[in-house]
Amino acid sequence: MRSMTGYGRGVVEQGGVRATVDVRAVNHRFLDLKLRGAAVSPGLEDAITARVRGAIERGAVVVSLHLARGTAAAASSAGFRIDPDAAEHAYRALAALAARLAIPGPDLALILAQPGVVSAEDRSDDDDAVSGAARAALDGALGQLNGMRAAEGAALATELQTRLDELVAARTQIAVLAAGVPQQLARRLAERVKRLADEAGVDPGRLAQEVALLADRSDITEELVRLASHLDQARALVSGTGAAGRRLDFLVQEIGRELNTIGAKSTTAEITTAVVAAKASLEKVREQVQNVE
User: Among 12, 91, 151, 292, which residue has the least CB neighbours within 10 Å?
Assistant: First the structure.
């Protein structure tokens, strides 16, 4: 189990390019990814997005990329190349024409506009270096980030197991108390009937029928079975290594629903007290689950 909060940095030098990637993650219901920093090609942006989505299931994640080129790469970073020989040839031809026409000689803008003088720089090698360095730096940052998230997740798992143990104990206590409810109902109903009839004789059959009806209305057997199942599933998720936040969030809602139903059906102060204590533990679980990936 991992926390959603963490930070990681990766720095890689490759092919004359130094890439620094910072990844920060905080709590969020879904995966919210933002890319900041150096402008990159659409292909590299897609690759970064795919890597992050493969490593992180949910959280608000900010990936910051900084690129620095070495001397060799910086020389061609303008994105174009000037051919000095072609420029000189163009100048001579234009200057000769200008002299023949008795007009001023050519300026630099006119020379650069001639075919073959300026050409686009082949940036494929540089793009490959940027992509390789950025990907490697991102992998390093994600590894560091997930290491921190795993450490925080281990602490969360310990806390959650403690609270789930409290809920299991509360569920056991409620089950024991519920086993004695029919007898308590029979005794209380008999006492009430005797008072109403001024201690006259009571039909045992009718009394048994009323007790059975009340016991059925207050029966929480199904709720206790479902509650036990939900708690078992939650404990298994907390002990696991995969992303568990969304499923734990769902189970917390289901556990709360069962506790509410048990409380509504409760006919004894003891069960009501146990339910209140269980809800207090569940609220602590709910708060911690918001931090789980």
Answer: 151
Q: Answer whether 244's CB lies under 8 Å from 237's CB.
A: yes
φ, ψ for residue 32, nearest 5 deg: -120, 105
pLDDT in tens, the chain (293 residues): 899 999 999 999 988 889 999 999 999 989 999 999 988 888 999 999 999 999 999 999 999 999 987 644 444 444 567 888 999 999 999 999 989 888 998 999 889 889 888 875 545 556 788 899 999 999 999 999 999 999 999 999 999 999 999 999 999 999 988 887 667 666 666 666 666 555 555 566 665 666 566 656 668 889 999 999 999 999 999 998 888 999 999 999 999 999 999 999 887 889 999 999 999 999 999 999 999 99
Tokens at 95, concatenated = 């200057």
What's the pTM?
A: 0.66
Dihedrals phi, psi of 118, to nearest 5 degrees? -115, 130
Q: Are 3 and 156 in contact (CB under 8 A)?
A: yes
